[in-house]
Amino acid sequence: MPVLWLVLAVIALALAGYLLGRLRAVSSAGGDARLLHSRPNYHGANVLLFTAIPSLMVLVVWMIAQPLLVNNATENKIPDGFVAQGSSLDLVMSDVRRVAEGLDMAVAQGVMSKSEARDLRAGFSDIRSRLGAVGVALGSEVQPEILNAAQTYRTLSKTANLWMTLMVAALAIGGFIYAMVRISPEFRARNVVEKAVLAMLIGAASLAILTTVGIVLSMVFETKNFFGLHSWSDFFLGSTWAPNFRGDSELSILPLLWGTIYISLIALFVAVPIGLFAAIYLSEYAGSKTRAFAKPLLEILAGIPTIVYGLFALVTVGPTLLSLFGDSGTLGLGWMKGATSVLTAGVVMGVMLIPFVSSLSDDIINAVPQSMRDGSLGLGATQSETIRQVVLPAALPGIVGAILLAASRAIGETMIVVMGAGAIAKFSLNPLESMTTITTRIVSQLTGDGDFSSPETLVAFALGLSLFVLTLGLNIFALYIVRKYREQYE
Fold first, then answer.
1. Which end of the chain is more exposed for a tag (fewer CB within 10 A), N or C?
2. How far apart are CA 219 and CA 271, in angstroms?
3. What are the angstrom distances between the C-alpha of 133 and each of 75, 103, 128, 139, 382?
4. Cβ neighbours around 460 below 10 Å, total
């Protein structure tokens, strides 16, 4: 049974259990719901939870584990030494899965019988022609061993799907019957339901934490493999980024780190003044109508996809800067050789960060009590003096935290840098030259059919872990500043 149908069947049974549970609870009390320990809704919810939760949890776990187990069993069927030089087991398995899907399509369209797809009685050339008839093109590299592995993959997948359907259906029906049998006037259904909901809330919170831990561990293990193949001193202390697949790569993070920090600083120089001044105006000077119109309009910038900002940098900002600072530019300075540069990416990224700084600073400034403003004005200070000497000092820790959070966002940006800054890793103070960042190199190193046993590919995980540590440190520092220096008002 398809997974979607199975999920819908479980949900339908759970909803039916909710309605029947309520009716059975009232019936068990002789039609007087006041005799029940818990309201009928709790009895229905208890049946719903016992029907849906165990079966759907098993379904999720099964869907995660089944591909891993089936792939592992199929890989064991591939003869030793079959993987060709320059290829990899992952590429072979992708061919196996493609052929298995083609066999399913051929059976569904009547091009091949089930027995032929299961036993592969037809010849290799005959199977090739039949799969070609349903749109599955097999190149000359596909061998009979792959067809045998595809047959094994298809058989194991169908068997696993059958057992998954039976297991999920058995748990759903069993939970339904168990919960219905327990219904009685004395049954404390409310306590059971509340404990179940609490367990689900704890599970949701734990899932977020475990996901973070899993991401970090995946990077840590691959980073360990990288440093087993490449010198850590070159990575942390070297000065050149020059990856190649001849075994003499220079993979230093320092040029990438410099480009990342340089572009982020320019972005903050653009975003912080504009965002902070906008927040001061909206919170202290703007009327209610102006604020209701301007604040949502400003925050629209935060909803624009970063690829759009990248196109804006590539098509508009970069050529504009080139027309000013290029060889044939208006100023005739010859400082800029191409449309991609640190300044291009920094300016556009700063525009993207304006709503982050503005919105957070606006909320922080509004949190300053009105009584402090009134006291300052009552002593004879003007509104601008009140803002400079009372409001901003009180809100400064929160504003600093907002700026550091914006810096973390800038450091992790990818698309704007890819399209606006270029791809050259080097040390330079000229903002009109092309540079690159850590995120750009991660994308580059993992693009294409890379070998995940080579340092040129594994370096992406070391870069990712370094970037994670950097942004995590900034976030922790921002929280420390906010908590240490924030004012507590009643």
1. C
2. 31
3. 27, 11, 9, 14, 83
4. 23
SS3 of 130-187: HHHHCCCCCCCCCCHHHHHHHHHHHHHHHHHHHHHHHHHHHHHHHHHHHHHHHCCCCC
DSSP symbol at 33: G
Whole-angstrom Cα distance, residue 278 to residue 294?
10
pTM for this entry: 0.70
CATH 3.40.50.360 assigned to domain 241-485? The reply is: no
DSSP string covering 235-275, please?
HHH---EE--SSS--EE-SHHHHHHHHHHHHHHHHHHHHHH
Residue ranges, CATH 1.10.3720.10, the chain: 241-485
Q: Where are the alpha helices (DSSP H) in 183-243?
A: 189-229, 232-237
Question: How confident is the model over 261-302, as pLDDT tens digits?
Answer: 999 999 999 999 999 999 999 888 888 888 888 888 887 887
- Report which residue type is found at 384: S
408-417 confidence digits (pLDDT tens)? 888 888 888 8
Average pLDDT of the chain?
Answer: 81
What is the rounded distance in angstroms from the CA atom of residue 367 to the CA atom of residue 395? 8
CA 209-211-212 angle, 5° bins: 65
Q: Which two tokens stand for residue 255?
A: 């040029």
Task: Please provide the size of the chain in residues.
Answer: 490
Rounded to 5 degrees, what are φ and ψ at 186?
A: -85, -10
| Token pair belonging to 25 | 């609870």
| Tokens at 313, concatenated | 């940098």
